[in-house]
Amino acid sequence: MKTKKSEKIQDLIIDKYYGEIERDVSGLDCKNAFIEKKLKLLKNKLEVIDNLPPVKVDIQKIIENAIETKAKKQEKVNFILFLFFSFLVFSIYVLVINIRGFEFFVKLQILVGTLIPWFLIPVSLIFSKGKVGENEEQ
């Protein structure tokens, strides 16, 4: 990725301020007065930072807190979705019982309870093709 010439000059000025660069930056396509002016401005800005005590930042803890917060948020969303769908299924059960009667509901439950596993197991094996054998090997 190409950097702009002004960004390169700024990086060189910062390096010169901290004494990390040995070569003279005056050979660039800018005037010495410009560099000195930038160095003075930079010195004023960086002196404040240099006088502050060092700050310890525990990046690992910050990342763990972010992951934990994201997991908690996902748990809340999953819980709300569970409540919504539970209420929806319960409402459908009540509606079916009111429209067709309890006897039809019991027959429907027996039919669904016996046929759904015969349908879901092969479909789940088709969609998880190759995943069953991988789990056994590990």
TrEMBL record:
Keywords: Membrane, Transmembrane, Transmembrane helix. The chain crosses the membrane at residues 79-99, 105-127. It comes from the Bacteria. This is YxlC family protein. It comes from Caldicellulosiruptor owensensis (strain ATCC 700167 / DSM 13100 / OL).
